[in-house]
Known about the structure:
mainly alpha
Amino acid sequence: MTAAWVLLLGAVEVPVDPDAPDARSWLREELAKAPYAAARPTWFDRASQAFLDWLQSLTLPGDGGANWLPVLATLVVVAALLASWLVFGAPRLARRRRAGSALFGAVDQRSSAEMRTAASHAASTGQWSLACEEIFRAVARGLAERTILTVSPGTTAHDFAARAGLAFPQAGTALSKAADTFDRVRYLERAGTEAEYRALAALDAELRADAPVTLAPLAGTL
């Protein structure tokens, strides 16, 4: 064999037959290169494909794009219902909550016990007008808590007193005077007195101890 042939044969690379661990290592190194990494599906690609597979599983058997129509129609209806609830449902619920908390021109979510406490505190500091307001509100909220009657946003103090007088006829006169006191200190800004507060507190205690004559005519909102 001539020297030229020896050089030629030496220049030809001998095929390499790696064992299994080397092959896996080389494969990982190759796949880690940028072109392969860029070609891998992202999480969004996988999620989109999963969603499409789910939609495909919902289609009717057969060929053609018409099989997607029932699925698309269902999705449109669900989306419309969700949008309607977000746009109209939530505000209506909020309005109902506000209506249930309305009390003589104000939104007040306190319980009758909390209102009585506030009235007692105002009275202890000589704030008789505020004390009269708070105890009258406590009377109304207390009857609502007992489901005897409720007060809507448009109900006035005298409307309430008239309806409450149907359930407690023996307190009709006192309820009317109580409404007069509330209107005078609340809207006419006239100073309440200790005597007026004491009368309202006595009325509140009397109604809490008594049972109404009947609940049937008073069911519902004023």
